[in-house]
TrEMBL record:
Residue ranges occupied by any AB hydrolase-1 domain in the UniProt entry: 55-320
Organism: Spirosoma sordidisoli
Protein name listed in UniProt: Alpha/beta hydrolase
Signal sequence range: 1-20
Entry's Gene Ontology molecular function annotations: peptidase activity
């Protein structure tokens, strides 16, 4: 009887080990890198399937947002690829003594070049795919239209982001005016009619007034903090802190008032030859769908994939997480 018991226990142990082997089929990478450049100390957390030899570099929005605080929604990608979460200068958990004079597109682009080189040094066999969201899309275009940078990556996914300040603000105002009329908000309609956006006035127009009305008209009613699980994860399972997260905004005064108003990459998009995916939350007022529709015709030499998220605003990875994850995986495959 004792012998049979031992044999049964041994068989059970083998069975459990076999099940465990089937579950653990994808080695998981957990590495932290740091980039120091022009006064900024920027962390890069790499997590995911190291066997894939593929890296999705998440270029977060803001400016001044964070990367790892969105991992809650992006973690599904890690089953098929490594994801590199990079906190930009003066953003998230980055630190250092950063001069405001470095908060320019050219400097962000240089930082991104160094991040890509660091990843390629750490993982020489891996292909790198960019995943830019909102302000991060501007950095993706800055990177891809500079020198030979696009040769360093295998593709780019852009999520609700602009290529042209004028095109963006024009469409935000049009979106807000349309919604004001639908909602019969005469105060908003009067303001927006009095403030048309033209190529000539982008340097001086009150963009913040237009932007505020867009939000008042439900341009992005989604709040990350409505999700209790997200809040708990952010508070206890993220390297970012509220102190780090919300003390960077004042450093972007020059960016918002000068550098961003001259941002224009439209004529350069024809020089991009790598595959590009346009992911868009259809309901978005922050960067309206019309911006995405205007982007595709400019990418005349790139193979372009489009995925619309009909139930989403500015963050489709929050409102349609599973569909977004699958779209990223499909593109990377």
């Amino acid at each position: 009887m004792k012998t049979i018991y031992i044999l049964l226990s041994f068989c059970l142990l083998l069975s459990l080990l076999a099940c465990g082997d089937r579950d653990v089929v994808k080695p998981t990478e957990q590495t932290t890198l740091f980039l120091r450049n022009k006064g900024a100390d920027m962390p890069i957390w790499i997590s995911g399937n190291s066997q894939s030899n593929k890296i999705v570099l998440f270029v977060h929005g803001g400016p001044g947002d964070c990367a790892m605080c969105y991992r809650y929604y992006l973690k599904g990608i890690e089953k098929d690829a490594m994801v590199a979460y990079w906190d930009q200068r003066v953003a998230g958990s980055s630190s250092g003594k950063v001069s405001e004079s470095t908060l320019r597109y050219t400097q962000f682009g240089e930082d991104m070049e160094l991040v890509v080189k660091l990843l390629k040094k750490q993982y020489p066999q891996a292909k790198i795919y960019l995943l830019g969201h909102s302000f991060g899309v501007e950095l993706v275009w800055q990177f891809l239209t500079t020198g030979n940078n696009q040769q360093q990556v295998s593709g780019a996914m852009v999520v609700n982001g602009m290529y042209s300040y004028y095109n963006w603000l024009y469409n935000v105002r049009e979106w807000a005016l349309r919604e004001a009329r639908l909602k019969k908000n005469t105060e908003a309609e009067t303001y927006l009619l009095a403030n048309p956006v033209t190529p000539e006035n982008t340097a001086t127009i009150d963009w913040e007034g237009i932007y505020r009305w867009m939000y008042e008209l439900d341009g992005n009613p989604v709040s990350l903090f409505d999700n209790n699980k997200y809040v708990i994860n952010y508070a206890f399972n993220s390297p970012n802190t509220a102190l780090a997260q919300f003390t960077h905004g004042k450093a972007y005064m020059y960016y918002g008032e000068v550098d961003s108003r001259t941002f224009e990459k439209g004529p350069l998009l024809k020089n991009i030859h790598i595959p590009v995916a346009l992911f868009w939350g259809v309901k978005d007022g922050v960067v309206p769908m019309e911006v995405g529709r205007a982007t595709k015709p400019l990418l005349t030499n790139a193979r372009v994939t489009e995925v619309d998220f009909a139930d989403s605003w500015h963050e489709p990875f929050v409102t349609e997480t599973d569909k977004f994850t699958q779209a990223v995986k499909s593109f990377v495959r």
